[in-house]
Amino acid sequence: FLEAFESLLRFAENCTSSLFETAYRPMAKEAAEPVKELFTDISLYILGAETTVESAVLRFFDSLFPLVYSRLINPGITDLSEDYTECLRLTRQDINPFGRYSKNMVTELSKSLWASRMLSQALGLGIEVINTTEHVALTKECSRALVKMQYCPHCQGLTLIRPCVGYCLNVMRGCLASVSELDAQWREYISTLEYLTNEMASSHDLEIALTGIRNSINEAILHAQLNGPQLSATVDKVCGQPKQQEGNLSSNNIVPVKEATETQTFVMAHPSLNNKRREFINYMKRSRTFYASIAERLCDGDLVMRDSSTCWNGEDVV
Questions:
Q1: N or C end of the chain: smaller count of CB under 10 Å?
Q2: pLDDT in tens, 291-301
Q3: DSSP assignment of the chain, as one string?
Q4: Cβ–Cβ under 8 Å, residues 142 and 175
Q5: Which segment of 3-7, 143-147, 251-255 scores lowest on mean pLDDT?
Q6: Residues facing 163 on adjacent strands
Q7: What is the CA radius of gyration of the chain?
């Protein structure tokens, strides 16, 4: 799942980067770092870091506004000092140049990323439980019972006689009594996984949300461009007027709105998370009784005598 998450995030990041390279070339190079930071924050959030989707998205738009303002709305700005850039970042929060699109992006991503974050944490917990119970310590009584079951017939020269099924089950259930107590919690855990995978497959589809980032950013930039004059008037009052390039502006530096509105269809170039989810939850459902039936699993196979009327019952051959 983590590999699938990483693959999907890389794919969505490449889609988003291509938006700047194809539609907003004047700011493509400078926008690369904010885009990278956005998807790094998303990855950290899914993995359980103490951050929020809202802070990641708003930080991205804070970094994006100075670029949009100086490269698209006012492409003649030559002196983008640190102070002026910081003023633009802070002004973004007040004048809301990207309209509803920044908040919409927070809302859409929050639902999907929450389910993915919870699933990631749930899988980590499951691994912990399995690893812990895999190395459970055996009591002295259990060790004695296992030796008696497995090797006492050898003392009588009965090396081919194996334990009876009922005898094996009694010994294993005694040894694994503490482990089998996990049954109720394990069943609840499987139900939780099922709920989370269903959430991810329905309204919280991660693929749709992540690949939709590209379109959300495009719409946000278009909104800012269309409201350029009003934004410039407000920014000039708050941050002052920066230095402008003299003479006619090169048409290469101005991106027409029409070009930016063109959309491209991207084919999903990674394994579908939906398929992995279905396979995974079907497998996990089959393990719902794992801790309840662990003794039966251990006593099924070469350890016991099933197809013969002769077996070892702990005292004698019967």
A1: C
A2: 899 899 888 87
A3: -HHHHHHHHHHHHHHHHHHHHHH-HHHHHHHHHHHHHHHHHHHHHHTT-S--HHHHHHHHHHHHHHHHIIIIISTTB----HHHHHHHHHHHHHH-TTTTHHHHHHHHHHHHHHHHHHHHHHHHHHHHHHHHHHTPPPPHHHHHHHHHHHHHHHHTT-TT--B-HHHHHHHHHHHTHHHHTTHHHHHHHHHHHHHHHHHHHTTT-HHHHHHTHHHHHHHHHHHHHHTHHHHHHHHHHHH-PPPB--SPPPGGG---HHHHH---PPPP-S--HHHHHHHHHHHHHHTTTTTTSHHHHHTSSTTS--SSS--B-SSSB-
A4: yes
A5: 251-255
A6: 312
A7: 31
- The amino acid at 269: A
Identify the bridge partners of residue 317 per DSSP, sorted by sequence position. 312
Which tokens sit at 79?
């002196």
Q: What is the pLDDT of residue 244?
A: 63
- The token duo for 1 is 């799942």
Domain boundary assignment for the chain? 1-243+265-299
DSSP states along 255-288: --HHHHH---PPPP-S--HHHHHHHHHHHHHHTT
Residue 300: partners with Cβ closer than 8 Å, 6 or more residues away: none
Token code pair at residue 175: 């040894």
41 contacts 26 by C-beta, under 8 angstroms: no
How far, in Å, CA of 273 to CA of 13, rounded?
A: 17
Query: Which has the higher per-residue pLDDT, 94 or 256?
Result: 94
Rounded to whole angstroms, the Cα distance separating 100 from 315 reads: 79
Amino acid code (one letter) for 272: S
Q: Is the pLDDT score of 269 beyond 60? A: no
Q: Nearest-CA neighbor of 25 among 273, 275, 255, 205?
A: 255
